[in-house]
Structure formats: structure tokens, C-alpha cells
Amino acid sequence: MKKVIIIEGMSCEHCVKRIRKELEKLENVNVLSVEIGKAVIEGSVLKDEAIKEAIDEAGYDVKEIKDEDDEHHENNHESHEHHMKHKKMHHKGHCH
């Protein structure tokens, strides 16, 4: 199972390193990526409360924790909406 963690308060690479360090302390968790504002982890048992505690220990706030499937669906939906808006505008004779 993969989870996407949306994190508030991160602003630099130092923040990224602090988050990664705390997430790597969690048992049976593989840290796939950490970037400003977001981390992706995977593991067989991912408890939201433990994730929130790790992020809090690093000094940041969790805005949201989502299953990666939700994130993938949301990104596809946004891309589709953008495409449909562009297509509609193009047929009217103007583009954004």
C-alpha cells in the first residue's frame, strides 16, 4: 500500500531531509519520495496516526494523508478537465 502525505510548513531542502529522516524511523515503511510539501511512502501496514506523529516530530503539520490510488485518480481527473476546457476553447476560435 502507498500513501501520499501532504505536508504544510516545508520550504527548503533542509525540510525535506528532516521529513525523510523521521519517516525512515517508522517500522516497515519504505520512503519512496520526499519533496517540498509532499511525501510518498509504502508499506504493508501504514497507520495515519504514526505518520502524523513522525511529521510532527520533524516540526511540520500534516494537511492530508491519501491513498496513492486517490492521488492518481485526482491527477487524471484534473488533466482530463484541462484537456476538455482547452478543446472547448479551441473550437470557439481562441486558446488560453
Structure report:
By secondary structure, this protein is α+β, with helices and mostly antiparallel strands. The protein contains three helices and four strands. It has a four-stranded antiparallel beta sheet with strand order 2-3-1-4. A hairpin with a 2-residue loop joins strand 2 (30-35) and strand 3. Helix 1 packs across helix 2 (48-58). The longest helix has 24 residues, at 68-91. The model is unreliable at 90-96 (pLDDT under 50).
In short:
The chain is an alpha+beta fold and about 100 residues long. It is built from three helices and four strands; from the N terminus they run βαββαβα.
Order of helices and strands: EHEEHEH
Tell me how many strands there are.
Answer: 4
Main beta-sheet strand count, sense and barrel state = 4 strands, antiparallel
> Strand order, biggest sheet?
2-3-1-4
Shape: globular
Q: How helix-rich are the residues, as a percent range?
A: 40-55%
Mean pLDDT: 82
Gyration radius, rounded? 17 Å
Q: Any low-confidence stretches, pLDDT <50, length ≥5?
A: 90-96
Number of helices: 3
Beta-strand percentage range: 25-35%
Distance between the termini: 39 Å
Kindly name the structural category.
alpha+beta
Keywords:
96 residues, alpha+beta, four-stranded antiparallel sheet, 49% helix, globular, disordered C terminus
Task: Annotate the secondary structure layout.
Layout: E1 2-8, H1 13-24, E2 30-35, E3 38-42, H2 48-58, E4 61-67, H3 68-91
Antiparallel strand pairs: 1-3, 1-4, 2-3
Helix pairs in contact: 1-2
